[in-house]
Design goal:
single chain, alpha/beta, Beta-Lactamase, Alpha-Beta Plaits, TIM Barrel, 3 domains, eight-stranded mixed beta barrel, five-stranded antiparallel sheet, globular, disordered N terminus, disordered C terminus
């Protein structure tokens, strides 16, 4: 009888990443913040149970499950950050209680958000980890000053119905503690709760009788001002900002200096719809945070747009970016975990905007291009640019990302094979990265496609590995050379013994399969040393090098140019 190994249960059945991830109560998610689309790893139902569809597919729907006052929400953790995304994302971390179909649990929510072209959070990728059941005494909600977001919308709606017929304006101020993530890291969750409670008391001490203060979503406070003229909004906001900042807050872990950021929206000038008014004030708060504005930021009416025209304009802009050669590559080094010497670079898509001089990051751009059916054209261009660089520098090796939609497009595959066939020396220094999700729908077909790509000398990498999409059986069938371990797990090694166990198991699994590993999102030396000692092959992240735009490369007449149209 064979002896049990790390990759078998006691009954002899093989361990797959999904089952292991579920056993430690973790599930990966992606959140497209601007569109509020939320997607989960394949083990979500196992970990979270059967939840309403809205909670699983919308960020605001899941936020409604958070117990009021239990801790900063994911939204608070992301928009409370004072850091700026330089292209590789910004870490966030929070802890709160959530109602999972009557099962109230404490969860730790960690990840990284990525900015759009305006610098504001556009999308996030993270992991939710169940900690333990929440006790009833931990979730006591006392008084009318604490509520969840849906209840707040109802209160705003009632105020609008009462005040607007009398031609009296209604102002909603939404305030939040600045840099809450930093305070949480410096002082810990319990001290952060003390800070939030003290801020709440200070705000209540200067709230006038005819106004209404509520706390919702952990770190967010809403103040309803009835009959407040537009020209008095700033003065009202300053009253709240001043009372919070006038003295330090003493906690059990030390003394904290706290600053409040405030966004505002006014009805009926902006809208007379309660939900839209609150959303507008939250958007203004995000602007105040991003700009470190000490006064209130007042939401402005949004220009009504014709969706069809906007969609056409976007398509035209995308094609123009290709034609005008505003597509560039930013190269991020990937280094040996042992020697720290650069092994290869990942080529990341950037698209320039001539009117601003800024560049769209791929985290914002790729989902947009996939929705418009344009991602194949950009994947063509990225591959073309990568091969041009490889032919220009014989010492360079590059990896490129390929969208699942391109991978399933026969025209793209034919163009890829023609292009790499015309430059075989460069193709041998090219690594093609496909996401783990790209392998799950038709694994046999994907394995065949990857085999064709590899037959031209390229290496194959599975990106964002660890979310549990792929079974051990399917992994064996793919002709892979590299597994890139999802940064949502590697970034939390210092704090989570569960993630340490899981990442180490993934590294051992890769060794079992005879493939190399890349650890993503490596930000500090402690993390890098631990990963090296476990046997990871390569490191990628802020610690070893950020992505940098390379100089423009003149196009050469490769077969791919013709295929891209």
């Amino acid at each position: 009888m064979p002896s049990p190994s790390l990759f078998t249960f006691g009954n002899g059945s093989a361990i797959d990443p999904r089952g292991l991830l579920s056993s430690i109560g973790e599930v990966v998610y992606s959140w497209e913040i601007q569109g509020d689309a939320l997607s989960w790893g394949p083990n979500a139902a196992t970990v979270l149970g059967r939840l309403p569809e809205k909670a699983m597919k919308r960020g605001i729907g899941f936020a409604a499950l958070v117990e009021p006052g239990s801790g900063p929400s994911r939204y608070d953790a992301i928009f409370g950050s004072s850091e700026h995304d330089q292209g590789e994302g910004v870490v966030y971390r929070t802890r709160y209680a959530v109602d999972l179909a009557g099962r109230k649990m404490w969860v730790e929510d960690t990840g990284r958000w990525f900015a759009g072209s305006d610098g504001r959070p556009a999308c996030a990728r993270g992991v939710l980890r169940l900690e333990r059941a929440a006790r009833a005494e931990e979730l006591v909600v006392s008084g009318p000053d604490l509520c969840d977001r849906p209840a707040l919308v109802e209160q705003i709606h009632a105020a609008l119905q009462e005040q607007l017929p009398q031609e009296r304006s209604v102002v909603i101020l939404v305030a939040a503690i600045d840099e809450l993530a930093r305070l949480n890291d410096d002082f810990g969750h319990e001290a952060t709760d003390e800070i939030i409670a003290t801020v709440h008391e200070r705000l209540r001490s200067v709230t006038r009788r005819r106004d209404h203060l509520v706390r919702y979503a952990g770190n967010s406070f809403a103040i309803l001002l009835s009959g407040c003229p537009r020209d008095q909004i700033d003065a009202a906001a300053k009253r709240f900002i001043k009372v919070v900042a006038e003295s330090a807050i003493e906690t059990g872990r030390g003394i904290a200096l706290v600053r409040l950021r405030v966004g505002a929206a006014i009805a009926p000038e902006l809208t007379n719809h309660a939900g839209q008014l609150l959303t507008a004030a939250e958007g203004a708060l995000a602007e105040a945070r991003a700009g470190a504005v000490d006064d209130a930021v007042l939401a402005k009416p949004r220009r009504r747009s014709n969706d069809k025209v906007e969609r056409v304009n976007l398509d035209v802009q995308a094609i123009a970016a290709l034609n005008e050669r505003r597509v560039r590559l930013a190269l991020q080094p990937i280094v040996s975990a042992v020697s720290r010497e650069t092994a290869f670079h990942e080529a990341l898509l950037r698209v320039g905007q001539p009117e601003s001089g800024l560049y769209f990051a791929s985290a914002e751009l790729i989902p947009l291009l996939e929705r418009r059916g344009l991602v194949r054209l950009f994947d063509h261009r990225v591959l073309e640019l990568a091969l041009e660089r490889l032919m220009a520098d014989p010492d360079l090796s590059l990896s490129v990302n390929v969208s699942p939609r391109s991978l399933g497009d026969p025209e793209w595959i034919d163009a890829f094979l023609a292009c790499t066939g015309a430059a075989p020396a460069a193709a041998r220094r090219l690594i093609v990265e496909v996401t783990e999700t790209a392998t799950i729908e038709h694994p046999a077909r994907v394995a065949k496609l990857l085999g064709r790509i590899k037959s031209h000398g390229c290496r194959i990498a599975i990106d964002d590995f660890g979310a549990g999409h792929t079974s051990l059986k399917h992994l064996r069938a793919f002709p892979i050379d590299l597994l890139k371990i999802d940064g949502a797990f590697t970034q939390n090694l210092r704090r989570s013994t569960d993630d340490r166990f899981y990442v180490r198991t993934l590294i051992d699994l890769a060794g079992h399969l005879g493939v190399e590993t890349v650890a993503e999102w490596v930000d500090d030396e402690w993390q890098a040393t631990m990963l090296r000692d476990w046997g990871v092959t390569y490191l990628q992240g802020h610690l070893v090098g950020r992505a940098e735009l390379g100089p423009p490369v003149e196009a050469s007449p490769l077969p791919l140019q013709r295929a891209a149209g």
